[in-house]
Write the C-alpha cells for this entry.
Amino acid sequence: MLRVGLVGCGWWAAHAHLPAIHAHPDATLVAAGDPDPSRLSAVTERFPDARGFATVEEMLAVSDLDVLVVASPAAFHAHAARAGLLSGASVLVEKPFTLHATEAHELVGRAASRGLGLSVSLPYQYTAAARSVRDMLTTGALGDLVGVHAVFESYTAPLYEGDVGEYLRRVNRPHTVAPLSSTYADVAVAGGGHGQSQTSHVVSAIMDATGAQPEHVTGESVFASPGMDTANAISLRLSGTAVATVFSSGGALPGIAAQQSITYLGTAGSARHDLARATLDWATADGASGHVEPGDNESAYPNGAPITALLDAVLQARSTGSEDDLRRLTARAESAARAVEVIEQLYRPESTRD
Ligand SMILES: NC(=O)c1ccc[n+]([C@@H]2O[C@H](COP(=O)([O-])OP(=O)(O)OC[C@H]3O[C@@H](n4cnc5c(N)ncnc54)[C@H](O)[C@@H]3O)[C@@H](O)[C@H]2O)c1
C-alpha cells in the first residue's frame, strides 16, 4: 500500500484528490495537514487511517510518505513540495505550480535527480484530446508549428472579490467544502488573480502540447484591485518558429457556455482543442481529418486523473524497477514550470520584463 499525505484539506482536495485516493486499490491516506483545525478534523474523521498535523514539517517528520499531495493555497505550494521531495516522497502539486519560475525549475531538478515523481494537477491535460494533439505536435503531423491562439473563459471572477457563494452559484457545482475566500482573493496567498488561478491552466496546456520554451512574453491585464487581475491578454514567442496569443477572463456568466479552446496552426495542418468539451478536431494538407472526444466513461474534466497517474507511476517503479512513468510525469512538470515563467512575466512591471 502506498502511504499518501495531503497538505491543504480544502475544497479541491475534497472534490478531486480524496475521492481518487480513496478509490485507488493500492493507496491509503495516512496523513493530513491543515492549519485550520475544523478543516483538518473533517478529513481525519472521514479517513480514520489519517493522522492530522498542523504543519507539513510535523507531518513529514513521522509519516514516511510515498506520495504527498499539495492542495494548499498557491503561495504555499513551493515550500510544501520541496519538503515532500526532500523527505523522499513523490509529489503532486496543485496549480498554479508555484508563484516563481525559479522555484518550479528547482523542484523539477530535485525530483529528476532523485528519481522521484513530480506532477502538477492540470486535469485538462489528461484527456484523449490532449494526448492526441500532443502526439500530433511531437510527431510533426501538423508540419512546423507557426502559431497558436487560445481563448479561455471561466466563471471565476467572483472568487477574486472573495464572493465564494456567487462563484459556486455560477458553476452550480455540488460541494461539501467551499473554498476559503482568502485562497483566491488575498493577493499574498493567491499570488494574483485570474492569471494564477485560470490562465495558468491554458498556458500550461500550450507548453505541454508544444514542448516549447517561452522565449518572449508580453501581456496586459485588467486589475480589479492592486495585484488582483480578472482578465489577461498574452502574446508569446515560442522556441522554434511559432508565436502564440492567449486571451483569458474570469467573467463568463452561466447564460453562455464558457469558451475554452486552443488552435494550433502548422505548415501542414491544424488542430483545435476544445478544453471545455475535451474534443479535438484536426485536418492536414493531404486531405486527412479527424475528431477526438471523450470515451463513454471518460470525464471532460478528469480531476482525479493527476493523482491517480502519479500513484500508478510510483507503483510501477516499485513493482518493475522502471522509473519511466515517474520520469515522464516529472518531464511534464517542466512544461508547467515554463508556464510559471509566462505567468510570472505577466505580473512583472513592463519595464522589468525579459
Ligand atoms: N486543478 C484544478 O482544477 C483546481 C481547482 C480548484 C482549486 N485548485 C487549487 O487547489 C488549491 C486549493 O484550492 P481550494 O479551492 O481547495 O481552496 P480552499 O480554501 O478550499 O483550501 C485550501 C486549504 O489549505 C489550507 N491552508 C492554508 N494555508 C495552509 C498552509 N500553509 N499549509 C497547509 N494548508 C494550508 C486552508 O486552511 C484550506 O483548508 C489552490 O492552489 C487552487 O488553485 C485547483
Observations:
- The domain at 2-122+303-325 is CATH 3.40.50.720 (Rossmann fold).
- The chain has a mean pLDDT of 96.
